[in-house]
Specification:
The protein is of the alpha/beta class and 329 residues long. It contains twelve helices and 15 strands.
Length: 329
């Protein structure tokens, strides 16, 4: 079978290789084998290849934080999935044609779900949902502000916030994105800059904002904090700048704000397996109904991984870059 190997940290397209390796073999007791149908190339995967991600295993290593697959065999004791089922995998190392994992690491995908959308189900939809539910006890009518609002997480968060009655203030780098985000249900959009707080207040009529969601870091965190009301929370879940988040001492002390961090693995780790399965069952149903979706720009074969990761690093794409290891999806 084919498997992607990262042989040196640095520029991803220079360190990756599509290798021929032995098949994974038959499943043991409590294990599942599945063919990988599609996987997305996420920013975290790019950081992993560069060696700047929080996980930096010995090389060679296989990247891949998420995927969708079709079960080919199950071992003794596995009853929640069967051969032919579509599954998402909670474990990493998914840039390969086939995986063999513990049965509890796979979750059945919703029947009828689009394969490309299912490939992107594990991380971004769950992140958007739990950012809305786990950080602050938001009520209908509450405002939140988020930067990188045109990202996959940002777009999903807009869709998820609307039915909850939570209003979204969406910060982006160019006003050409306003129409698209408002079509998703964004309540207001502003362009980031030194006068961000004033622009936000003009839209909210100075209504307090309880939660700021930051995926840029650096000075952008401080600009977002200036939009958040007294006693509010700024939650950092990424760093497009590669910098640490910066907040003013005045915001923390006089404003009583709190800076917290979010990572999906920790949020899911506080829940039982049944609760995790329920989260993905609900998200999968919303994807199947068309409530949640993420745009895809193109799909590459696994042999073209170098071209795929180069494409994933280009700015102003129209959607996610996917790879289909076992043929078109």
């Amino acid at each position: 079978m084919k498997q992607i190997l990262l042989e040196r940290y640095g520029q991803p397209e220079e360190g990756l290789r599509c290798a021929d390796v032995p098949d994974v073999g038959a499943p043991g007791a409590g294990e599942v084998v599945f063919d990988v149908l599609a996987f997305p190339i996420n920013p975290a995967d790019i950081s992993f290849c560069r060696g700047s991600y929080r996980l930096k295993p010995p090389l060679p290593a296989t990247p891949g934080a998420e995927c969708v697959g079709r079960v080919t065999a199950v071992g003794a004791g596995v009853s929640h999935v069967k051969p032919g089922d579509l599954v998402i995998n909670l474990q990493r190392e998914n840039w390969a044609q086939q995986r063999r994992v513990k049965g509890d690491d796979v979750i059945a995908a919703a029947p009828g779900i689009d394969i490309q959308q299912a490939a992107m189900l594990r991380i971004n939809p769950a992140t958007a949902l739990l950012l809305l539910t786990d950080v602050v006890d938001l009520k209908p009518g509450d405002w939140i502000v988020q930067n990188v609002a045109n990202s996959a997480v940002g777009r999903l968060l807009i869709r998820l916030a609307g039915p909850r009655g939570v209003k979204t203030m969406n910060v982006v780098r160019r006003d050409s994105l306003f129409g698209e985000l408002k079509s998703l249900g964004a309540d207001a959009c502003v362009v980031d800059g030194p006068d961000l707080a004033d622009a936000v207040k003009a839209h909210t009529r100075e209504a307090p904002i309880r939660l700021g969601l930051d995926a840029v870091s650096g000075r952008a965190t401080a600009r977002l904090s200036a939009c958040v009301g007294e006693g509010g929370v700024v939650c950092n879940y990424g760093s497009m700048t590669g910098e640490d988040p910066v907040m003013s001492r005045n915001a923390l002390i006089s404003g009583g704000q709190t800076l917290v961090g979010f990572i999906l693995g920790r949020a899911l780790g506080t829940r039982s397996l049944d609760q995790v399965r329920a989260i993905y069952a609900d998200l999968g149903q919303q994807v199947t109904k068309g409530v949640l979706s993420a745009p895809v720009e193109t799909v590459y074969p696994i042999e073209d991984i170098k071209e795929a990761v180069a494409h994933a690093q280009r700015g102003e794409r129209s959607g996610k870059i996917l790879v289909a290891p076992n043929g078109p999806v």
